[in-house]
Amino acid sequence: MTPPQLVVLGCPGHRRVTLFAAAARAAGLPEPAVLPWSAVLRGRYELPPGAVVRVDSPGEDPEADRLLRGAALGAGYAATRVEGGPAWYAGVTAALRELAARPGVQLLGDPEEIAVMFDKRRTHTALSAAGVPVPRALPGELPHSFEELRERMASAGMRRAFLKPVHGSSASGVVALEFGPRGRVQATTSVEVTPDGLHNSLTVRRYRGATEVAALVDRLTPEGLHVEQWVPKSGQHGRAADLRVLVVGGRATHVVVRTSRHPMTNLHLGGARGELSAARTAAGDTWPTLLATAEAAAARFPHAPMVGVDLLPSSHWRRTLVGEVNAFGDLLPNLPGLPDGPAPGLDTYAAQLASPRYLNALHRSTAAAPALHPHAAQGQPQSVDAPAA
Q: Is 28 exposed, middle or buried (0-12, 13-18, 19+ CB in 10 A)?
């Protein structure tokens, strides 16, 4: 029987799409088609009957970004702008729900679970309710101003905190805030404050003093700021370190150590990959517990084919908290699967294609799955962007 058409909802030409397509070809699957996010957001597209749709990030599609945030930002729209998270969130979740409702479409991922993962408040609540360790959050409603935030943090005994836009990703708009003695205050962030708005920058900078910090925070609060206690991370070679753990089919398959001189360890902000072997050695017999914590977080999203979990190791790698849960956390190029895990040597995309979720969706059994062919011929994914009748 001819397998159903595998379709990737993503950004044509982006490496997320091309790397997944390469893994599909290596697994002996037909070339996946590409459904551009911009077509879905406009509602003008067609899909082959019985399409199996992988949902990938819309974040690298300039046209999709303008469709999602353009109206909210108006004449001041720029792809680098931090603001517009609520509009982005509303557009993405509505589009996924509409796509999932189309007859005959099998979505690899659940729109409601993705909606929770892209809402930091709801994620924190879900994980905490399940007993998954997370940083302490500032209780109550989201703050409306810097002055309100300062008063509430003082009442909660919280001197250092991460301010996270509720619907942000890739550290966009994230601020590491700390209050010192004699009224000192400092904010570390990649946000650049300009007269025309807040912009993402590849440079991590510091704002000092109540006036500077208030100007930054007061412009971020309309986005909605989830406030979590700043937990000191374990280190590696004098740099702060955390872990991105990819969980596929309920099991931790890939781990990357991220290190930085800054509070944010994101690689695009100057972070660097650390030494996994050194982290495992430092964690010792608690390493399986760290992986189990990531798996417990992913278990709150049982319909997700994969979940990227960010762990915040502390106490010299002996304890950990879950800092983030990522619906599209699998862009980890050249990272082989854990040698003692369920996908040894496979990259993140090959591991997913070999998982029961994908095998079942494509009507293939694990026993019948073709052998990997790493040197399969390279091709270009075909687009299914077509106006609906």
A: middle
Sheet holding 225-229, edge to edge: 197-208, 185-194, 175-179, 160-165, 225-229
Closest-CA residue to 193 (of 210, 171, 215): 215
Contacts 24+ apart (CB under 8 A), 266-270: 266/170, 266/171, 268/170, 268/202, 269/171, 269/190, 269/202, 269/204, 270/202, 270/204
| Residue showing tokens 């991370």 | 233
Q: What letter does residue 123 receive in the DSSP assignment?
A: H
The dihedral through the CA atoms of 306, 335, 11, 327 has a sign that is positive
pLDDT in tens, 229-278: 999 999 999 999 999 999 999 999 999 999 999 998 888 888 899 999 99
For residue 256, give the 3-state DSSP assignment: strand
- Residues with Cβ < 8 Å from 340, sequence gap 6 or more? none
- Best CA proximity match to 224, nearest among 366, 62, 89: 89
**Among 255, 80, 269, which Cα is nearest to 171's?**
269
* H helices, E strands: number in the chain: 12, 16
Say what the pLDDT of residue 314 is.
95
DSSP state of 261: S
Distance CA 314, CA 213 (A): 28
**pLDDT, tens digit, 9 for 90 and up, residues 218-228:** 999 999 999 99
Identify the bridge partners of residue 55 per DSSP, sorted by sequence position.
Answer: 9
Phi, psi of 168 (to 5 degrees): -85, 170
Residues 356 and 61: their CA atoms lie apart, in Å, by 30
Angle formed at CA 58 by CA 373 and CA 377, multiple of 5 degrees: 20
User: What average pLDDT is seen over the chain?
Assistant: 91
Tell me how far apart the alpha carbons of residues 191 and 201 are, in angstroms, rounded to a whole number. Answer: 6
Residue type, 89: Y
Q: Taking the CB of residue 294, how many other CB atoms lie within 10 A of it? A: 26
Say if CB 260 and CB 270 are below 8 A apart: yes
3 state SS of 64: helix
The end-to-end CA distance of the chain, in Å, is 29
Alpha-carbon distance of 68 to 189, in angstroms, equals 24
